[in-house]
Design goal:
The protein is of the alpha+beta class. 26% of the residues lie in helices and 42% in strands. The chain folds into three domains: 67-91 and 257-331, conserved putative lor/sdh protein from methanococcus maripaludis s2 fold (Beta Barrel), CATH 2.40.420; 94-102 and 180-254, Efflux pump adaptor protein, beta barrel domain (Elongation Factor Tu (Ef-tu), domain 3, Beta Barrel), CATH 2.40.30.170; 106-177, RNA polymerase II/Efflux pump adaptor protein, barrel-sandwich hybrid domain (OB fold (Dihydrolipoamide Acetyltransferase, E2P)).
Length: 332
């Protein structure tokens, strides 16, 4: 082979190798550039995914900010009770005031039938006696015969004016009072008197305690006081009330049935809205409601609650306090 031809072939071979090397370097550069471009994209996607998860967590917290989970045992211990939402009766009432008083039929002043010597007298002040119990024994001054005195009513001894060995006098030996029946004496002003009549239902409140009754009779006013006096016989067999208590009373003069009503104890103010707390399983959620007519016991619900739903009645304020505490902690 001629020398010139060899030189030409060698030059061509070197050129080819140079081109191949340049092409490989360019490919590596492009690959590194693509990799450098992909890294920010992956990192951005991860950050966006983290933001989405954080946003979802915040959204979940916001969704549950108006509810609380209470286990059944804890609810019973806290005295939380529920009722089923349904129809109710709203009463139109007139509010009046008065006091409790003794029913005269519940007061008995025990005297000796014949003057004589007190041989025995058993009950002390404060003791309870039953109708028919022997409470004293007297020896007659005229016949010198002894006779027994029995209690005409059941009740409590509130005074005693004799002891064994003393002679009977004009004062009662014992005074016994039965507090099972009291009177509520309500003052009715002339402007309301025309709406009041015997038999009307009355809901009375004294010292936070409620009692129901109905008007037994009405006493007309006098020249000294034009106000009418309405008397209500109270069943006080549980002994909750005593004579002399100040009363507020709602006398029902009309009533209307409504499609949906709840117990007044269920309504709370939460986030500046009237709400009731609805139970679903162990979850108690606040439910904003629109209120309608109300009386001393129930309030009409116009919207926000459905018939058949369980709502909290007693101690609903405990759930409100728990939610307000959770909201305050979340705010910080």
């Amino acid at each position: 082979m001629k020398p010139n031809l060899q030189i030409q072939l060698l030059s061509a071979l070197l050129l080819s190798l140079s081109l191949i090397g340049a092409t490989a370097q360019a490919a590596d550069a492009d690959a590194h550039a693509d990799h450098d471009h992909e890294l920010p994209t992956v990192e951005l996607a991860e950050e966006m995914h983290a933001d989405e998860e954080h946003s979802e967590e915040e959204h979940a917290e916001e969704e549950h900010a108006d509810s609380v989970v209470i286990e059944p045992g804890m609810a019973r211990q806290a005295g939380i009770t529920t009722a089923m939402a349904g129809t109710g009766v709203i009463r139109e009432a007139i509010t009046v005031y008065g006091t409790t008083a003794m029913n005269p039929q519940g007061i008995s002043e025990i005297r000796a039938r014949f003057p004589g010597l007190v041989v025995a007298i058993s009950p002390e002040v404060g003791d309870l006696v039953s109708a028919g119990d022997t409470i004293a024994e007297i020896e007659s001054n005229e016949s010198l015969q002894r006779y027994r005195i029995q209690s005409p009513i059941s009740g409590r001894v509130v005074s005693r004016n004799a002891n064994p060995g003393e002679t009977t006098g004009e004062q009662p030996l014992l005074t016994i009072i039965n507090y099972d029946r009291l009177w509520a004496e309500l003052t009715i002003f002339p402007s309301n008197a025309r709406h009041i009549q015997p038999g009307q239902e009355v809901i009375m409140e004294a010292d936070g305690e409620l009692m129901r009754g109905s008007i037994s009779h009405i006493l007309p006013g006098s020249s000294e006081s034009p106000a009418v006096l309405a008397r209500v016989t109270l069943d006080n067999s549980d002994g909750r009330w005593t004579p002399g208590l100040l009363l507020q009373a709602d006398i029902t003069i009309a009533q209307v049935e409504v499609a949906l009503a709840v117990d007044n104890r269920a309504i709370q103010s939460f986030e500046d809205n009237p709400v009731v707390f609805v139970q679903e399983g162990d979850t108690y959620a606040s439910r904003p409601v629109t209120l309608g007519r109300k009386d001393a016991e129930q309030t009409e619900i116009l919207s926000g609650l459905e018939p058949g739903e369980l709502y909290v009645v007693e101690n609903s304020y405990l759930i409100k306090a728990d939610l307000e505490k959770s909201s305050a902690e979340h705010a910080h």
